[in-house]
């Protein structure tokens, strides 16, 4: 006897659409879940239902109330990540069309299905080069030293190999920060002999490890807590520190196996022997590497580059006049204001994509990593100095992002811009 056909109604399709949209938004919420519930609410309203939701970091509880009073609840699971910026940009267009009522439920589901199955825009070997460019482009801002730049290219290749393999091997992915940091540390100490390098070993490894340092995660967590999303913010904060501890443990393991020992994990005097123009221009390969690593659309690269230079330039001037903390706050504030303003246009990438490069420039996770590894080496005062700097700069960056978003959205609403044109991230 054949199985009876399953008949779906329009209400079932709406429930499915809300569930699919919630899963997508949760999976791409690495930079925060601030307006996720508002997005689902607006999608539901466009299709005649009321949607309420509660975020639990990797889980989302959704309750859909239909016009006849019937309620359907569901829980979706997704691990927040930052792997496919192209999907984030494409979703902005889809979200706008759904909320505007331009798509039927069936059409919206079909478009979401297409989005979820869209192949990456770049092959693996181009992303491999992207991770190397990401590390090498960041190196001059850490220490403008030619040897540092060469070491960053080599260590960036090591990180690229582990990072891309980790995306495909589930067992490795669960402990990827530890494995990646150990591999980078072993090559750095055993092959590059960086135990007595200028600036200290950790400073040499930071550009290669930067792709996994959760500085943006830490800031997103602090921002979520600051705006009252205590549960998801606290969980994200705990996960961020876990990744930091894994990275620090990998560096320590590599130092121990190579024979350099944890006593070598201390900062020393930096030596800058590059022309300043090299540091300025290095942000171009950094941005290109970030776009390739995280699969940004080609036409969005220019916006990423704008965010990078805007954040770097404002921080440079602000630090010059007011000090590091105030400079970081001003850079985050200006970056977010400009990102919200530019992101309101439907044909431009979302605010998240515009400001992401700048957030990476301002990120502070490397300070925390250096503080943890220095502490493991027994250098108490240096460790506390790094961790204190991390706390100050992280606070300035977080509140700059919060204030910038709040002011930007408020100004655009006062100018009577459509509310859907001023999202905080997408």
Question: Your description of this structure?
Answer:
This protein is mainly alpha-helical. The protein folds into 2 domains: 10-116, no CATH class; 124-421, no CATH class. The protein is built from 18 helices and 3 strands. The protein has a 3-stranded antiparallel sheet. Strand 1 (50-56) and strand 2 form a beta hairpin. The radius of gyration is 22 Å and the shape is globular. The N and C termini lie far apart (49 Å). Residues 1-7 and 417-424 have low confidence and may be disordered.
What is the radius of gyration?
22 Å
Overall geometric form: globular
- Report low-confidence residues grouped into runs of 5 or more: 1-7, 417-424
Overall mean confidence score, pLDDT: 84
Total number of helical segments?
A: 18
Structural class: mainly alpha
- Which percent band covers the strand fraction? under 5%
Provide the helix percentage. Answer: 55-70%
Largest sheet: 3 strands, antiparallel
Number of domains: 2
Distance between the termini: 49 Å
